[in-house]
Here is the input.
Amino acid sequence: MTTEYVAVPASWTVAQTLQHIRQVERTRETVYAIYVLDPASQQLQQVVTMRRLITGLPEESILDVAQKWRG
Here is the structure.
């Protein structure tokens, strides 16, 4: 079993991220982590679990979801 990830821009919403995951999930074994990248530099800003992602509102920013759950 391989744990895979999906990387998305920090400017995306929860809805955009979920749609992207639906499209790429077919080519992945198991997606547990969503890497949130700075759109300009492509540097990692946050990591969101799938569990946290689905608790976000569709219009909410993926970065806001990540920061809300940050320890």
